[in-house]
Each structure stands twice: as C-alpha cells, then as structure tokens.
Amino acid sequence: MDKPRTLLEMAGAKLTPPPPAELTMVLIDMQMEYVDGKLPLPGAKPAIAAAARLLERLRQLGRPIVHIRHKGRAGTLFDPDGPGFAIAPALAPAAGETVLSKGLPNSFAGTELDATLKRLGAKQVLYAGFMTHMCISSTVRAALDLGYASVVASDACATRDLPDGQGGAMAADLLHRAELASLADRFAIVAPTAAILG
Q: How far apart are CA 67 and CA 97, in angstroms?
C-alpha cells in the first residue's frame, strides 16, 4: 500500500513553516475556562507553554499578535464577568496587541479579525489555541476561503474527550491528532513549535 499523502503534497505545495519573521500570530481562546474553569482540557497547560515560546519569539521579532477571546453569556461558560474569561497569564496581551471577542467558533465570524489581519498586512498566519476540533478548525478552514496561508502549531493546541455518536467516546489525544491531520490535508501547514521556531 502506498504511503498516504495530503492534497497539499499532491499539489506540490511547500510543507515547511515559513520563518517566524514572516508570521502573524493569532491566539484563540487561550482562556482560564480551559485551564481550571468549567471546561478544563487535559492538554491545556503544555499547550499554553508551547504557545508562550512562540509568542515570545514573535514579539522579539516585532511581529503582529492578535488575541481572540470567546465571550459567553452571564452565568455560562466564558462568562465575561467570571474568572474563566481571562486569558492565561503566560499569554496575556501586551500593549499594542489586538484583542478581539467572539461568540462563534469561527474567529472571523462577527468579528474584526479579517479587517485586522488585512490592516496588519498579514499573509501567513500562525494559529495556537483551544479547542483543536472546534475553534481552531473552524477558523483555519475559514482562513483558506479568505485567502490566508495558515500554520497550526500542533503542540500549542488542545481539545477534550467527546462522545463519538455511537455510544462510546473519542479520547482527546486521538481527536486532536485526527483534526490536525484533517487540517494538514488541505487547510494548513501543521508543525510542532520546535519546527516553527527553526
């Protein structure tokens, strides 16, 4: 049997991440709700640590950074007045960095993300955040339609166990890997932090 290949490979696309100096970083929903709130993810802390390494390097290079926060309703997940709404301290926005709030999984929907990236002159966007199967996936898929080239930091994302629709469950690590494989087929270069930093 032949080794599986992605559609990007078949098209002859470059599969290595561009240099960090060419990237704009978008951090999606790196909020405390996923760390010690009502929706803790098993891989949240390692993902935040990986994202912090990327964030530090891109800041050193003076690259644009955009933070996205999911905004829920009062008394629900991501209550804007509750502790779960806060961005993880290791990734706290710095002065001059854009912070946007969203209400849907796709970070472009109902927000100024597209306009912000265009204003920043972003062509190649690096994504990290939560959850891999939900907001990372929907945002990266939408980014293709909007003309952006995407890079997903595989170890700077995480998700949770989900019901599989057949009476069982899919483990978070398997779901994470499956979603990254799906994105890597056509929508993004998927690489670990070490490969992105070079």
A: 7
Q: pLDDT by residue (tens digit) across 81-133?
A: 999 999 999 999 999 999 999 999 999 999 999 999 999 999 999 999 999 99
pLDDT reported for residue 1 = 67
**What are φ and ψ of residue 24, in 5° steps?**
-110, 135
C-beta separation of 51 from 30 below 8 A:
yes
Q: What's residue 42's pLDDT?
A: 96
**Contact yes or no for 126/23 (Cβ under 8 A):** yes
Distance CA(190)–CA(185), nearest Å, equals 9
Which one, of 146, 152, 149, lies nearest residue 124 by Cα?
Answer: 149
- pTM confidence score: 0.97
Number of residues that make up the chain: 198
Q: Are 135 and 70 in contact (CB under 8 A)?
A: yes
Answer whether 108's CB lies under 8 Å from 142's CB: yes
Name the token pair of 70.
């999911």
Catalytic positions: 29, 102, 135
Amino acid letter for position 45: K
* N-term to C-term CA, the chain: 33
> Torsions phi, psi of 145, nearest 5?
-65, -25
